[in-house]
Design brief:
With 472 residues, the chain is an alpha/beta fold. It has 17 helices and 14 strands.
């Protein structure tokens, strides 16, 4: 996108800088010194002129969305402090919850308080800030108020007559469309002299219904700008840029998380057979640094019961991943535990990553007792404890699987050979269907996600199976 005046000057020739400064007043120079918004803003960060009611700023991570929203709401308070009847105007900042509103929108590095301090406003002289029971900022000269709330229910703004609203990260809200229709939109009823009530929405784009509807409107009600993480590189540290490239660049999800694109097809399958085939290898490299077995316990076992997912995967020292075995079986109880530990020993694995929520805690207990039993048989060394990593997840399966899908798209996950049943489940899984529990895929996700936690680490932990294995 475009550059700020500050960025343009950093690239300008000395004579051009001198010519620009010659047009500036003394006050302009002072404001440039304290980096006022007109000097540091990029064009896409500022809502345009026009008759729009909702302006969407869809930006990747680190684009400066919070800064944009905070600057805009403060500017609106200073420019339009009163309603047509002469009463102080009320404005709203709504985040995912009150904690986000406090830590990000108000008190954060790019929040409203930092802007007021930069403007040399003094608390209890120029403005008051109340944290509880309901956060608000009052401009003392005009009485204009900014109210802060979380997006927990539609009637949270009941009783407010709003002049403007800043809605932050609506893709995180539990029901953004209902909150908009039944709450915020109805509250935008103040008569603003010389203008009208406006809404500035700053968010990472995800294909939620309200965003898809807003972006398709052609009647002037909605305005739109986009921002990329790389547009704001001048204000981001090099490590963040390096990590964001490593995490997302070259992937479908990266177009959303870095470049601010709204991708309708993100609701489709996360894994493709073409990608799996492109990354497939026949041999495991020599520089393996860590090994894990992922397990998704079944709720009912036996010949006619659910499948227990069991997948072994390795990570090399370049942070590539190798799926080496799909050992999923229809077993439960002690038989399931012995099977898992045999797979673990066969691969000389370092950790067993086991999901334990949703009533699956039974396997962990049996795994521990079976491990001791197999110690007595000489399969595992004495005086070691079962290397179990319990996986507790409060997120849905799609959110858990997305980071793994990213690694596939980045050509960093390789299947060593072919795993027909696992791959069929991967490409056939619909992440929008909450009723389907893909056991093999879940085990794969547990294994790869655990390996991802050790990216860029060089330490290899002691493996209790680093001895001769017998009886397998």
């Amino acid at each position: 996108m475009g550059r700020s005046i500050k960025e343009e000057l950093s690239y300008a020739a000395p004579e051009d800088i001198e010519a620009f400064l010659a047009t500036c007043t003394e006050q302009d120079i002072i404001e440039m010194g304290r980096e006022e918004w007109w000097y540091t803003q990029r064009p896409e960060q500022v809502p345009p002129e026009g008759n729009w009611t909702v302006h969407l700023y869809l930006g990747g991570r680190g684009t400066g969305k919070t800064k944009s929203g905070a600057e805009w709401i403060v500017e609106r308070c200073l420019k339009f402090p009163y309603t047509a009847s002469g009463h102080p105007a009320n404005r709203l900042v709504m985040a995912y919850n009150v904690s986000d509103a406090l830590t990000t929108c108000i008190e954060g590095e790019s929040g409203i308080l930092s802007i007021l301090r930069r403007m040399e406003m003094v608390e209890d002289k120029d403005y008051s800030y109340t944290k509880a029971p309901k956060p608000k900022i009052v401009f003392l000269e005009t009485g204009c108020v900014i109210h802060f709330t979380g997006a927990n229910k539609p009637d949270v703004v009941r009783g407010l007559n709003l002049a403007d609203a800043w809605l932050d990260e609506i893709v995180k809200w539990p029901d953004p469309e209902q909150i908009w229709k039944e709450g915020v939109h109805h509250a935008l009823r103040s008569d603003v002299p010389g203008d009208k009530p406006r809404v500035f929405v700053t968010t990472t784009p995800k294909p939620i219904e309200i965003l898809k509807k807003w972006t398709k409107r052609k009647d002037g009600f909605v305005s739109l700008s986009r921002g990329s993480t790389f547009d704001n590189m001048a204000n981001l540290n090099a490590e963040f840029i390096r990590e964001i490239r490593l995490e997302y660049e070259g992937t479908l999800i990266g177009r959303q998380e870095i470049y601010g694109e709204l991708l309708d097809d993100m609701e489709g399958p996360l894994f493709s057979l073409a990608t799996i085939n492109d990354n497939r290898v026949e041999e495991i490299p020599d520089d393996i640094g860590f090994r894990v077995v992922g397990v998704d316990p079944c709720l009912t076992g036996g010949e006619n019961g659910d499948l227990m997912g069991c997948v072994a995967a390795y990570r090399d020292r370049k942070d590539h991943y190798y799926v080496v075995e799909d050992a999923s079986v229809r077993l439960s109880g002690r038989d399931a535990a012995r099977h898992v530990w045999k797979v673990f020993a066969r691969h000389s694995a370092d950790v067993l990553a086991v999901e334990t929520n949703l009533g699956k805690q039974w396997l962990t207990e049996i795994l521990r007792s079976t491990y001791k039993e197999m110690q007595e048989e000489g399969i595992f060394p004495q005086y070691t404890t079962p290397p179990i990593k319990e996986i507790h997840s409060n997120h849905g399966k799609k959110l858990r699987a997305e980071p793994v899908a990213i690694r596939y798209q980045q050509k960093r996950v390789h299947h060593v050979g072919a795993f027909e049943h696992l791959e069929t489940q991967m490409v056939g899984w619909d992440p929008t269907d909450s009723k389907v529990s893909p056991d093999r895929l879940d085990a794969l996700v547990h294994a790869i996600r655990y390996l991802m936690e050790g990216e860029n680490r060089t330490v290899r932990f002691f493996s209790p199976t680093a001895v001769t294995v017998r009886g397998l």
